[in-house]
């Protein structure tokens, strides 16, 4: 833990705590902002009592964060390039972080208070983009350069298509159910306080737990990404790379550099722009090789070089991914497979979140859900 907070001064330490408290506040608001999404049906139909439904939802949500991977959290992290926060200096970097946190939290809180339908995901992503664009408007910056637009297009497309896909699937399922399941009780409002038939009740409870688990593995990752954004922006020496990697994993990362270097050396391409990108990757590989070659564990990487390691890994992976998708980089099938595996080994250095971040983020959201359940009961 000491290595993670290397170089942290009293001032930045206080600001780090304040930033994390605001981030956890966002998660708390997000928790009771989204509680009804998962538990409304089982409470309305008397399938479960409010307290039981909310506690079950909180447990499934909590488990979803640990089981569901980090894909969504990493998408949030990569929306705003971390080097933007670091290169801007501590003062401006903290101002950017606090701005996006306060904007997202206030909007979430306001829409919840007035009962306005609102997406927490849209709120936070919009705040991140607003900070990046505002920073690019400062003197000496290129407008729009503070945002990872490639990642924005991916996330934006997912946000645009997901409601349409959900609407379509729900409509098709309802039409199929009306044709195949003739039980009229399934399509009537509940009578008094009587719960629905056992088989309908079981389906409703199953969907409640499924939605809660999916919420944790997807929407719940927003808070994890937000906390990691703060930690890497304020304490890059401690969180730019995964300091918990084992020696075998570090050896795999070092070997991955050699694998990629050898493969690119034999790649045949005549396009000048592709060759220029490969030359940039070669420079970054040489830098990584010099740094990782002297470290058997991640904490042995000098603190001042850890952010550079992260930057090089992400740039190498991004460039090779684009060249592969465009078909500009042609490698033998076996060698292409080795490069893909090597890229995955390298990303072990950067694609992570400590367990304590997962735990704390979900505890705040779960406590909000239970508070909401207390109010509804």
Question: Could you please describe the fold and organization of this structure?
Answer:
The chain has 377 residues and is mainly alpha-helical. The chain has two domains: 10-237 and 354-376, no CATH class; 241-347. Helix content is 74%, strand content 0%. The chain contains 15 helices and no strands. It has helices at residues 10-44, 50-67, 71-79, 82-87, 89-113, 120-136, 149-180, 198-217, 221-234, 236-239, 247-265, 272-292, 306-326, 333-347, 355-376. Helix 5 packs antiparallel against helix 9 (221-234). It is globular and about 70 Å long. The model is unreliable at 373-377 (pLDDT under 50).
Write the layout of secondary structure elements.
Blueprint: H1 10-44, H2 50-67, H3 71-79, H4 82-87, H5 89-113, H6 120-136, H7 149-180, H8 198-217, H9 221-234, H10 236-239, H11 247-265, H12 272-292, H13 306-326, H14 333-347, H15 355-376
Helix pairs in contact: 1-2, 1-5, 1-8, 1-9, 1-15, 2-8, 2-15, 3-9, 5-6, 5-9, 9-15, 11-12, 11-14, 12-13
**Major beta-sheet overview:** none
Question: What is the H/E order?
Answer: HHHHHHHHHHHHHHH
The termini sit apart by: 41 Å
Number of domains: 2
Q: pLDDT average, as an integer? A: 79
Question: What structural class results from the helix and strand content?
Answer: mainly alpha
Globular, elongated, flat, extended or rod-shaped: what is the shape?
Answer: globular
> In what range is the share of β-strand residues?
under 5%
Strand segment count: 0
**Low-pLDDT residue spans:** 373-377
For the CA atoms, what is the radius of gyration? 24 Å
* Count of DSSP-assigned helices: 15
Helix content: over 70%
């Amino acid at each position: 833990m000491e290595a993670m907070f290397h170089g942290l001064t009293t001032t930045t330490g206080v600001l780090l705590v304040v930033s994390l408290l605001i981030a956890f506040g966002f998660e708390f608001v997000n928790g009771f902002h989204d509680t009804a999404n998962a538990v409304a049906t089982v409470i309305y139909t008397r399938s479960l009592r409010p307290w039981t439904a909310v506690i079950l939802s909180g447990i499934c949500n909590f488990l979803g964060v640990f089981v569901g991977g980090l894909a969504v959290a990493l998408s949030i992290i990569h929306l705003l390039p971390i080097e933007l926060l670091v290169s801007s200096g501590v003062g401006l970097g903290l101002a950017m972080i606090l701005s996006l946190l306060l904007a997202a939290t206030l909007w979430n809180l306001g829409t919840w208070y007035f009962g306005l339908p609102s997406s927490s995901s849209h709120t936070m992503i919009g705040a991140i983009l607003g900070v990046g664009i505002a920073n690019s408007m400062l003197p000496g910056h290129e407008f729009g350069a503070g945002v990872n637009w490639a990642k924005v297009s991916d996330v934006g497309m997912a946000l645009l298509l997901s409601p349409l896909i959900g609407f379509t699937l729900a409509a098709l399922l309802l039409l199929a159910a009306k044709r195949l399941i003739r039980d009229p009780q399934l399509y009537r409002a509940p009578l008094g306080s009587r719960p629905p038939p056992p088989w309908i009740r079981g389906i409703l409870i199953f969907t409640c737990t499924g939605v809660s688990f999916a919420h944790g593995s997807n929407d719940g990752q927003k808070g994890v990404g937000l906390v990691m954004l703060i930690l890497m922006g304020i304490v890059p020496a401690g969180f730019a790379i995964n300091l918990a990697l084992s020696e075998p994993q570090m050896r795999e990362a070092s070997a991955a550099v050699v694998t990629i270097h050898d493969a690119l050396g034999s790649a045949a391409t005549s396009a000048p722009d592709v060759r220029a990108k490969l030359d940039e990757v070669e420079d970054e590989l040489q830098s990584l090789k010099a740094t990782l070659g002297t470290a058997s564990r991640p904490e042995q990487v000098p603190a001042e070089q850890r952010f550079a390691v992260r930057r090089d890994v992400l740039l190498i992976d991004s460039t090779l991914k684009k060249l592969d998708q465009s078909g500009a980089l042609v490698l033998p099938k076996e060698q292409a497979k080795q490069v893909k595996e090597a890229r995955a080994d390298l990303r072990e250095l950067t694609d992570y979140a400590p367990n304590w971040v997962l735990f704390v983020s979900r505890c705040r959201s779960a406590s909000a859900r239970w508070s909401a359940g207390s109010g509804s009961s």
